[in-house]
Design goal:
Layout (H helix, E strand, L loop, with lengths): L1 E2 L6 E2 L1 H5 L9 H4 L4 H10 L5 H14 L5 E2 L2 E2 H15 L2 H10 L7 H9 L4 E5 L8 E4 L5 H11 L5 H20 L9 E3 H18 L15 H4 L15 H13 L8 H11 L6 H10 L5 E3 L2 E3 L4 H4 L5 H11 L5 H20 L10 E2 H16 L8 H4 L10 H16 L14 H4 L12 E4 L5 H4 L7 H6 L10 E3 L4 E3 L6 E3 L23 E3 L1
Parallel strand pairs: 5-7, 8-10, 11-12
Antiparallel strand pairs: 1-2, 3-4, 5-6, 8-9, 11-15, 13-14
Length: 531
């Protein structure tokens, strides 16, 4: 049992369990009331409508001062009493609202921040693109008083629950990282506002699909506490109504990706984008792209130049990773952010497998490539609205026939072929030497090339350089007056009489300077030159 401050009423445990949360009452509806009306609400001290009471106390507080007396108790003391009652009644939305208005902070916040920093993670407090709010990145240990001040400065003033919820997320992430650090692989920066968005998405998923039972084979994607961390009996629509224990379970379910195979492609993309999760070695692969992009990369309308980026940073430097992460963080839609990550991974894969490709004539505009890939998909599916990418987000990420990877790869290949982004000749008959891979220079244009039928020639004969060496020029000066580039052709194929299969056969025409010989060399395997 608990006795109130004014000793006027005693609440039994039964009455506490039957507490009512007037969740239909909003602060904006109470704000227009006069001071006298607010005073009467506070004086009545009616816990049958706890939100109305808390709103009245805060609005009168903001109009006057926290030490204003109402029947021998200040407004601060009365809000503290509402906070304690809400904790006992388990009215979690109201608990967070009162704690936010009172600027309460957990004692273990600063050690939790330090625990994540020493593991190479950044933490971003606050909310972006909200009036009176901002994002603040924590990159070094911070004093508890400064951390408390930043939390409430960066979060919206009209949403004090956000600062309290962020504190719970800090504790949940730190505890999970201590016990299971590998689940944070690919997450460079823990953005608390994005993590809140991911929890909100998961909560909406539970509400939309309903409390269905998952039993072996399912026709849909029913939510379960094991999938989402959210109890199936939870019916409210706000993440601030979740209990602190459920919040920790949801964070664990998100980071461990428990049963994510039940989610759709769109849900998976949104959650990965909201969690800021990147593939393995993603930032190193972006460095590879930048190395072979002379004119730089455009990511979300932000230009990343090749120089001085490559000269000022290194491939494995965290500063470069933070720079790319900051560029991606400018994107407000998590599913589009994840699609950009997929596109950059595709470009990196193409470059790794094709060393002759280099983007030397134009910038890589990632936004244009995504639009091109969606246009290819829309043309194939007959989609007329090219502004809504939702059908594109719903595609599987790695399906062989119809996936985002398929159409994004087509867009990248068309960009490569249209821009002729090749740094060397594509040699389809062998490795060759660097000189043989080099594009013909202006000096050799318009001249008759030498023709070499290599057949199965030895490695020494395959190592002929364009134009020959000085020693070979002296040895063959009676056959040639001027060095010309070498052009390798395919070995002619002839069918064997016995089996009818096609096998390579060497052709050995004699030099033009001598008489034609049509009878010799039919079965020999050697390289000859037509000079």
């Amino acid at each position: 049992m608990e006795e109130t401050h004014d000793n006027s009423a005693i609440f039994s445990r039964l009455s506490l369990k039957e507490g009512y949360d007037d969740d239909m009452t909003h602060e904006k509806d109470v704000t227009p009331r006069t001071d006298h009306e607010l005073f009467q609400i506070i004086e009545k001290d009616d816990m049958e409508r706890p939100r109305l009471l808390a709103f009245a106390i805060w609005i009168l507080w903001s109009r006057t001062h926290p030490d204003l007396l109402v029947h021998n108790f200040t407004l601060r003391e009365r809000l503290e009493k509402v906070y304690r009652r809400a904790c006992q009644l388990r009215l979690w939305w109201l608990v967070r609202y009162c704690a936010g208005r009172l600027h309460k902070a957990m004692n273990s916040l600063a050690p939790a921040i330090t625990n994540m920093l020493v593991r190479g993670k950044q933490i971003t407090l606050g909310v972006r693109n909200r009036p009176g709010a901002r994002e603040e990145i924590i990159v070094r240990p911070i004093a508890p008083s400064d951390l408390n001040r930043l939390l409430f400065e960066c979060c919206p003033a009209d949403e004090p629950q956000a600062a309290v919820f962020h504190q719970e997320l800090i504790i949940a992430c730190s505890d999970l990282m201590s016990h299971n650090p590998q689940v944070f692989e690919g997450v460079l920066t823990i953005r608390l506002s994005w993590l809140s968005d991911a929890i909100s998405m998961l909560l909406n998923y539970v509400r939309i699909t309903g409390a269905l039972k998952f039993s072996g084979v399912s026709t849909g994607t029913p939510p379960t506490p094991g999938t989402t961390g959210i109890p199936t009996e939870f019916k409210k629509s706000c993440i601030y109504d979740l209990s602190p224990t459920v919040v920790k379970d949801v964070v664990t379910a998100l980071m461990t990706r428990t049963n994510w195979h039940l989610l759709s492609s769109l849900q998976t993309r949104r959650l990965n984008g909201a969690l800021n999760r990147m593939p393995v070695n993603f930032y190193d692969r972006v460095w590879t792209i930048l190395e072979r992009s002379t004119h730089g990369i455009i990511i979300a309308d932000q230009f990343l130049p090749q120089q001085p980026t490559l000269s000022d940073m290194t491939r494995f430097e965290l500063t470069f990773s933070y720079k790319i992460e900051a560029m991606l963080s400018r994107i407000s839609h998590p599913e589009y952010r994840q699609l950009l990550v997929e596109l950059l991974s595709i470009i990196a894969t193409i470059l790794e497998r094709n060393p002759e490709i280099a983007f030397t004539h134009s910038r890589i505009d990632c936004d244009s490539l995504i639009k091109k890939g969606f246009a290819l998909f829309a043309a194939e599916e007959g989609i007329k609205d090219l502004n809504d990418l939702t059908p594109f987000y719903q595609l599987e990420g790695q399906a062989l026939s119809t996936s985002t990877a398929t159409f994004l790869t087509k867009a990248v290949v068309e960009f490569i072929l249209a821009g002729r982004h090749f740094s060397q000749v594509i040699n389809i008959f062998g490795e060759g030497t660097p000189e043989e891979k080099t594009l013909p220079s202006q000096h050799h244009r318009g001249k008759m090339p030498k023709i070499a039928y290599t057949g199965r020639a030895s490695s020494e004969k395959k190592k002929r350089h364009v134009g020959g060496s000085s020693s070979s020029s002296q040895h063959h000066h009676h056959h040639q007056q001027q060095q010309t580039p070498l052009l390798r052709l395919a070995t002619p194929l002839t069918p064997e009489p016995s089996s009818g299969t096609v096998t390579p056969r060497a052709i050995t025409p004699s030099p033009l300077s001598s008489s034609l010989n049509t009878s010799g060399g039919g079965g020999q395997d050697e390289s000859c030159r037509l000079q």
